[in-house]
């Protein structure tokens, strides 16, 4: 993996996912398992491919499995928002599976090692963070919240299916995911902004604005891959789309929602 991709993935492992697990109401014991596994996974990123890196990545996969095991406990069948949160809890396991394969030099399902490394990054942010924030918006926003909560997980799953079926399916997933994420950003700015917390409002604005731009890049890349039109390279996408989603969307979004949750719980106690 490149150093830049490693740093993006570490942001997901060590910052975005822990914040998100707390927002999702995952119990403290499971969060502590994740913390230990995330440290092992982060270390695996920097080791040469081989048994030691695979062993550490496997520890990370075990922690991701513990998180995924919380998903069936949610009321996802009757509620689009809960379905989005449940899917978010499964997404780190997809990333972890790709990480174990990549660290072992295994071309899982025929994918190149570079694609596997980018899959690790993708499913921390377009997978976990996007689905979780869509679910949080689905719980709290006004009209349009159900469409937002449903479209983001749907788009993510279609993109995942496109990995195995072809570039045009992946592009269709990118269209659905982009539309859903734009809707999430708009509903966040329209309905979620806490009036008395300037920091939370600034973080939500940054998250929504960055998201609008990075998803244009995702559409451009997916269309180029499917049609052969000129499009950004993977390295350029990692430096723009990847870094923007990690810091601007994922981290700012989780920090903002943490403040929103704290403010909401404070009002309830009062």
Automatic annotation (TrEMBL):
Alphabetical UniProt keywords: Membrane, Transmembrane, Transmembrane helix
Residues annotated as transmembrane: 6-24, 53-71, 83-101, 113-135, 147-165, 171-189, 201-223, 235-257
Keyword Transmembrane helix among UniProt keywords: yes
One family name in Pfam for this protein: YndJ
Source domain of life: Bacteria
Protein name: YndJ family protein
């Amino acid at each position: 993996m490149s150093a830049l991709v490693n740093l993006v993935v570490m942001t997901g492992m060590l910052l975005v996912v822990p914040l998100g697990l707390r927002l999702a109401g995952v119990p403290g014991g499971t969060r502590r398992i994740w913390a230990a596994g995330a440290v092992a996974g982060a270390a695996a990123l920097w080791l040469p491919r081989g048994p030691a890196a695979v062993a550490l990545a496997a520890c990370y996969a075990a922690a991701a499995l513990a998180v995924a095991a919380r998903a069936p406990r949610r009321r996802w069948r009757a509620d689009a928002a809960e379905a989005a949160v449940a899917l978010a809890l499964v997404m780190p396991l997809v990333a972890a599976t790709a990480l174990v394969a990549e660290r072992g030099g295994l071309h899982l399902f025929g994918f190149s090692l570079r694609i596997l490394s980018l899959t690790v990054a993708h499913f921390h942010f377009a997978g976990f963070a996007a689905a979780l924030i869509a679910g949080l918006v689905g719980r709290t926003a006004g009209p349009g919240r159900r469409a937002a909560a449903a479209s983001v997980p749907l788009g993510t799953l279609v993109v995942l299916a496109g990995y195995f079926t072809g570039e045009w399916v992946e592009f269709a997933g990118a269209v659905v995911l982009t539309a859903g994420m734009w809707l999430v950003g708009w509903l966040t700015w329209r309905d979620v902004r806490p009036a008395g917390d300037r920091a939370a409002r600034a973080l939500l604005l940054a998250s929504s604005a960055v998201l609008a731009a990075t998803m244009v890049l995702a559409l451009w890349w997916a269309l180029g891959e499917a049609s052969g039109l000129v499009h950004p390279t993977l390295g350029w996408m990692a430096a723009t789309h990847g870094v923007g989603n990690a810091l601007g969307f994922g981290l700012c979004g989780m920090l903002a929602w943490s403040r929103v949750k704290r403010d909401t719980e404070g009002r309830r106690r009062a």
